[in-house]
Amino acid sequence: MAVNDECKLKFLELKAKRNHRFIVFKIEEQIQQVTVEKVGSPEETYDDFTNSLPANECRYAVFDFDFTTEENVQKSKIFFIAWAPDTSRVRSKMVYSSSKDRFKRELDGIQVELQATDPSEMSLDIIRGRAI
């Protein structure tokens, strides 16, 4: 599975320049390549992010989560989310699952990984809990 250069460029912009809140990646099965499907601006919320994931198709996503620690320190963590809803096609789940580690290696700087098959598995409370 090839990775489109735009995927790496957008991720570097999110990580270094912080000019994106999230990125949703899609595997284009016809050309066997991971591509950028959607980029969220820094003003967008976690709800905007979850709403951009299709209800019955697999995706990879990266989310830059800002939070405040108990010591009142502003921090952020970059989450990698493998979205594979139960309602997606079996073949699609297999393709995303088998390509995940290779794709993740291309994105240097991911701090937390999350696997989700339905929205409750990636609620804001779960994200917050994994970040701290």
List the helices and strands and how they pair.
Elements: E1 2-3, H1 5-17, E2 22-28, E3 33-40, H2 46-51, E4 59-68, E5 74-83, H3 90-106, E6 112-116, H4 124-131
Parallel strand pairs: 1-3, 5-6
Antiparallel strand pairs: 2-3, 2-4, 4-5
Tell me about this structure.
The protein is of the alpha/beta class and 132 residues long. The radius of gyration is 14 Å and the shape is globular. Strand 5, helix 3 and strand 6 form a beta-alpha-beta unit. It has four helices and six strands; from the N terminus they run E-H-E-E-H-E-E-H-E-H. Strands 1-3-2-4-5-6 form a six-stranded mixed sheet. The protein starts with a strand and ends with a helix.
Task: State the main characteristics.
alpha/beta, 4 helices, globular
Q: Strands of the largest sheet, in order across it?
A: 1-3-2-4-5-6
Question: How many beta strands in the DSSP annotation?
Answer: 6
Oligomer: single chain
**For the report, how would you describe the main beta sheet?**
6 strands, mixed
In helices, the fraction of residues equals 25-40%
- Find the structural class using helix and strand composition: alpha/beta
Average predicted local confidence, pLDDT: 96
Shape: globular
Low-confidence stretches: none
Radius of gyration: 14 Å
- Proportion of residues in β-strands: 25-35%
DSSP helix count?
Answer: 4
Order of helices and strands: EHEEHEEHEH
Alpha carbon gap, first and last residue: 33 Å
Structure in a nutshell:
By secondary structure, the protein is of the alpha/beta class. It has helices at residues 5-17, 46-51, 90-106, 124-131, and strands at residues 2-3, 22-28, 33-40, 59-68, 74-83, 112-116.
